[in-house]
Amino acid sequence: MLRIGLTGGIGAGKSTVSAAFSECGGIIVDGDVIAREVVEPGTEGLAQLVDAFGEDILLPDGALNRPALAAKAFVDDEQRAKLNGIVHPLVGRRRQEIIDSVSGEPEKDTVVVEDNPLLVETGMAPMFPLVVVVTAPVETRVERLIKRGMDEADARARIAAQASEEQRREIADVLLDNSGSQGELIEKARDLWYNRVLPLAHNIRTRQPVEITPRVVPYNPAWPDDARRIIKRLHTACGSKALRVDHIGSTAVAGMDAKDVIDIQVTVSSLEVADDIAEALAGVGYPRKEEITNDVPKIDGRSTVAEFDHTDDASLWQKRFHAAADPGRPANVHIRVDGWPNQQFALLFVDWLAANPGVQEDYRAVKQAALRTSDYVEAKEPWFLDAYRRAWEWADATGWRP
């Protein structure tokens, strides 16, 4: 089963996308519906709201007077935090109950869409293998809300009380622009569903990483943001078992041409820990690609940095290798042991490249030449053998430490 997060500010068009996903076969868990459900008359949630905000937030029949609550809860951050502190845990508990009741069929690519307007505020975004954010200009959203019968001042207050567009963009794997017509948005949603969501669901179910044809492209300013989202996702999945998670490889070097594949290194205390987190990584969209991978270079001699063992002892160069199941964001996840030479070199390599533009140009040329061969990785090895020595000489000279 694949769980994806869907969010967007009030008036952005999230409900339209949710309905489109439902028509495509998605199982919708609607945060707005749940939020209303947990404060119905007789519920624990409504009782807590009355205790916090007073009896005057109730209608004569005992139901919640939402405008009256909004008038009190949206006046400042303290009152809004009080509201969220009551409602969010109740919504989260009920959401989990619904998800647990979904019986995913073993041979079916089930997709649960968690429609949650507060995905930023709750900090839940890294829990999902894919987060879709629906966006629209603020003035367009205000105009839509007024057409629905909302007072303009209330509409602007509601928008201001929610996460900003910048905050939503930070968590978005996919941004769906709804500045046009509803029909255009529905087409975008359907295209996303069939070309990215369903393939991702299938790959997660079958534990199948995406296969990527190597191709060097110009530097993409979106790479650091993509890496930050992946890092948060991996941190959430691994918990304390990940000692650190870093963006490595060419895409981590500002301005450098690279393959459009984000490389991430997860540092752990042992290979046994790497094996322990394998299922957790697969669940958030990064299945294991190879059981055992060895990074060992064919080198002679040792680095002059005494605290690191730079021998060709294969036992010190092993790692575990995972790759993204998402066809829309290729990524490699290298799990290496803290202090081992391959873990150290991955960190060093980024800093060495960043500090040496000439080396960047050499590496770019090597990659372009390697693409014309039958084995991309093998063709780069001679350059890497020399690069390993030069990088550590630079580290010695500059006093570099990871």
Q: Give the tally of β-strands.
A: 12
Binned strand content = 15-25%
| Top-tier CATH class of the largest domain | Alpha Beta
| Backbone CA Rg | 25 Å
Low-confidence blocks of residues: 299-308
Q: What percent of the residues sit in helical stretches (DSSP H or I)? A: 40-55%
Distance separating the two termini: 38 Å
Q: So what's the overall shape? A: elongated
**String of helices and strands:** EHEHHHHEHEHHHEHEHEEEHHEEEHHH
Determine the CATH topology of the largest domain.
Rossmann fold
Please count the helical segments.
16
CATH homology superfamily of the largest domain: P-loop containing nucleotide triphosphate hydrolases
How is the largest sheet built, in terms of strand order? 2-3-1-4-5
For the biggest sheet, the summary is: 5 strands, parallel
Please name the CATH architecture of the largest domain.
3-Layer(aba) Sandwich
Helix/strand class = alpha/beta
Overall domain count: 2
Characterise the protein shown here.
This protein has 16 helices and 12 strands. The chain has 2 domains: 2-206, Rossmann fold; 216-398, 2-Layer Sandwich (Beta Polymerase, domain 2). The chain has helices at residues 14-23, 31-37, 44-53, 66-73, 77-101, 119-122, 138-147, 152-161, 165-171, 182-206, 223-238, 271-276, 278-283, 341-355, 357-370, 376-398; strands spanning 2-8, 27-30, 111-115, 130-135, 174-177, 216-217, 244-248, 258-259, 262-268, 288-294, 318-323, 331-337. Mean pLDDT is 90; it is low at 299-308. It is elongated and about 80 Å long. The chain has 402 residues and is an alpha/beta fold. Strand 11 and strand 12 form a beta hairpin.
